[in-house]
Amino acid sequence: MFPVPQPHPRSTPPPGHRGVAPPGWPRQVRPPDTPDWEATAASWLLDLCPPDYRRFSGLRRHVVVLARFAVLHVEAQQLATRRGLSEIRGDLKDVASGAVVEAAVQTFQLEDARLQAVRREVGLVEEALRGRRYRVRM
Length: 138
Description:
single chain; mainly alpha; disordered N terminus
């Protein structure tokens, strides 16, 4: 389904940078270059995506491709949430009380905040899978 991956030229971390995760790294994923970190990344990414993605062996074999799919999926969720937030008051004004409408608005706001954090996390994982490494700066 996907071409055989070639070794990334920056796949070896610089000395002293093994296992360093940037701020905002998902707690469910081991830091880059630690044992089985890509397996934990794949598992976490699959949990973010629609369940049907699990049946595509190419996504499981090529985690960087899976990460790109996950980024796009989370971004689509963000767009849907923001659309819902912009339309919810008008959509529900004739069928729900003001308190119910405001609760729905608050739910969309909470989901938008959650998705912002998830988008950052999945972006960091994608960057690491592409060979980019975080360096602690003092």
